[in-house]
Write a structure and sequence with these properties.
This protein is α+β, with helices and mostly antiparallel strands. The protein has helices spanning 28-46, 51-54, 100-114, 129-133; strands at residues 22-26, 63-68, 76-80, 85-91, 119-125, 138-139, 144-146, 149-157. The chain has a domain at 18-117: Aminopeptidase. It has four helices and eight strands. Strands 1, 2, 3, 4, 5, 6, 7 and 8 form an eight-stranded mixed β-sheet that branches.
């Protein structure tokens, strides 16, 4: 269960996944403060993405996901765009390898399925390609540069 604190959004929780990870889905208004914190930490501080590229006008249109372990702050985030694109997947350094990314990805894929989408797409950082392949994603294009980081388009049927 997510911590009962002022930062926890009121959106419905997804069932706890591996290691007790819980994911909540909601709007940017509900999730934005915590999602922004995690994305800034991972993309801007760790990976050097320019801050002006990180938050965009698409955020208010997306379903956002936040993940928690049984105690503590949100440790991961991701978003589902209206067209079925999954993006901005980020897990705090201290939570990597604990099932947070898997729980986020599966929750966002399930949200797309519930919306009637038949496929999801994402732009994976090249080093993360094997992670997404474990969930049925296949490469759908040539590598490309985004914010100085090599990415690859990937798709998965739902």
């Amino acid at each position: 269960m997510a911590p009962a604190d002022a930062d926890a959004p009121g959106a419905a929780a997804e069932p706890a996944g591996k290691g007790g990870v819980e994911v909540r889905l909601g709007s940017w208004d509900e999730m934005g403060a915590q999602a922004r914190r995690i994305r800034f930490e991972v993309f801007v501080v760790e990976q050097g993405v320019p801050v002006e590229m990180e938050i965009d006008s698409t955020d208010p249109l997306c379903i956002h996901a936040l993940a928690w372990l049984p105690t503590g702050p949100a440790l991961g985030t991701g978003r589902l765009l209206p067209d079925g694109h999954i993006g901005r997947m980020a897990v705090a350094r201290e939570a990597r390898g604990l099932g947070v990314g898997s729980a986020l990805l599966l929750s966002l894929m399930d949200a797309a399925r519930r919306r009637g989408q038949r496929e999801v797409e994402l732009f994976s950082q090249v080093h993360a390609q094997p992670f997404y392949q474990r969930y049925g994603f296949v490469v759908a294009g040539a590598p490309f540069d985004d914010a100085g980081i090599d990415h690859i388009a990937m798709r998965a049927p739902l």
